[in-house]
């Protein structure tokens, strides 16, 4: 569960980084698709990680 949540947070970081790069003039191929794909993947990973952690109860809350 914790690894999934960490991966989700990293996907949010990538999503936000692409947004910043795009808005500052750096040209990327398909920036909207990259942002949407990473954003929704991040949400899924964090949610699934939370559910998985809740079912097993082995992870500590931060």
TrEMBL record:
It catalyses: a 1-O-(1Z-alkenyl)-sn-glycero-3-phosphoethanolamine + H2O = a 2,3-saturated aldehyde + sn-glycero-3-phosphoethanolamine; a 1-O-(1Z-alkenyl)-sn-glycero-3-phosphocholine + H2O = a 2,3-saturated aldehyde + sn-glycerol 3-phosphocholine. InterPro entries: TMEM86B-like (IPR012506). Keywords: Membrane, Transmembrane, Transmembrane helix. The keyword Transmembrane helix applies. Pfam families: YhhN. Its main location: membrane. Its EC number is 3.3.2.2. It is a multi-pass membrane protein. It is an enzyme of class 3 (hydrolase). Transmembrane segments: none annotated. It comes from the Eukaryota. It is found in: Membrane. Coiled coil: none annotated. One of its GO terms (molecular function) is alkenylglycerophosphocholine hydrolase activity. GO terms for cellular component: membrane. Belongs to the TMEM86 family. PANTHER family: GH04784P (PTHR31885). This is lysoplasmalogenase. It comes from Teladorsagia circumcincta.
């Amino acid at each position: 569960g914790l690894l999934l949540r960490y991966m989700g947070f990293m996907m949010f970081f990538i999503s936000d980084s692409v947004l910043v790069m795009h808005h500052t003039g750096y040209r990327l191929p398909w920036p909207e698709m990259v942002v949407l794909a990473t954003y929704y993947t991040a949400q899924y990973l964090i949610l699934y990680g939370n559910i998985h952690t809740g079912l097993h109860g082995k992870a500590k809350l931060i």
